[in-house]
Design brief:
By secondary structure, the chain is an alpha/beta fold. The chain has one domain (4-249): Spore Coat Polysaccharide Biosynthesis Protein SpsA, Chain A. It is 30% helix and 20% strand. The strands form 2 sheets. A 7-stranded mixed beta sheet has the order 3-2-1-4-8-5-9, sandwiched between helices. The mean pLDDT is 94.
Length: 250
């Protein structure tokens, strides 16, 4: 079994909800919730936060976690994970967990790692979940993924894919599902991650603003696993209010 390690990229500033990782109405910051949820995964051997700011480091150390300052000019979370991976040659698989996922399930993390364990020729894995609502299907903020019968991604898009030439609401009820939302949880093999960090942005990536299209455009496969219940990330004030309500009523 390959060794694996979780990295949580964490920027201090965010555009849609200011300093969201440090919000703490529950008594814990969003980042602490995410860190503790990720610790429930059984396959990875460890976890750290990769950040651009000392204030995040201070918060992680406050709750007893491990944090590493990475290049403040890093273009993406993937670049921060790659920076950590460059100094950990004894780890084969790195899991990228977004810092604004306080309800991430340990089972989901284990699943993306297992996808690479079961497919040694593949360098990257991620997850999708069925879409059962037409509004979500047509929402550009909901990224869709299509994959083949072997579970390899064919395309990711903000548009509804696949496109039904003749629409019927029953398409949303079929088993197995026809439409899948992509979830932003990734696992990478260390050597592949180093190659990915050096690839230039692709035309499709720039068009859709989806970094994973860089991988497909370069001809590399991505394994996609399916989960029934996705965790709910925090992008807006409304997302945070909903999380606080679930936490207090849970």
């Amino acid at each position: 079994m390959p060794t694996s390690f979780i990295v949580i990229p964490a920027r201090l500033h965010s555009t849609r909800l200011a300093r969201k990782l440090l919000l703490r109405e529950t008594g814990k910051t969003v980042l602490q919730h995410t860190y503790e949820s990720a610790l429930r995964a059984s396959r990875p051997s460890g976890i750290c936060v990769a950040t651009d700011h000392p204030e995040i480091v201070e918060e992680v150390e406050r709750f007893g976690g491990r944090a590493v300052l990475t290049d403040p000019e890093a273009a993406s979370g993937t670049d921060r994970v790659a920076e950590i991976a460059a100094s950990m040659s004894d780890v084969e698989v790195f899991v990228n967990v977004q810092g604004d996922e306080p309800e991430i399930r340990g089972e989901a993390i284990d699943q993306v790692v297992a996808l690479l364990e079961d497919n040694p020729e593949v360098g990257m894995s991620t997850l999708g979940t069925p879409i059962r609502d037409r509004t979500r299907l047509h929402d550009p903020a909901c990224v869709k993924v299509v994959f083949n019968d072997q579970g390899r991604a064919l395309y990711f898009s903000r548009s509804p894919i696949p496109h039904a030439r003749e629409w019927n609401d029953r398409l949303l009820e079929l088993q197995p599902a026809v439409f899948y939302q992509h979830l932003g949880l990734y696992a990478y093999r260390r050597d592949f991650l180093q190659r990915l960090a050096k690839l230039p942005p692709s035309r499709l990536e720039q068009l859709e603003r989806l970094e994973q299209l860089r991988v497909l455009s370069a001809g590399f496969p991505i394994m996609v696993g399916v989960v029934d219940e996705p965790s709910q990330g925090i992008d807006t004030e409304a997302d945070y209010r909903a999380f606080v309500s679930r936490y207090r009523n849970g």
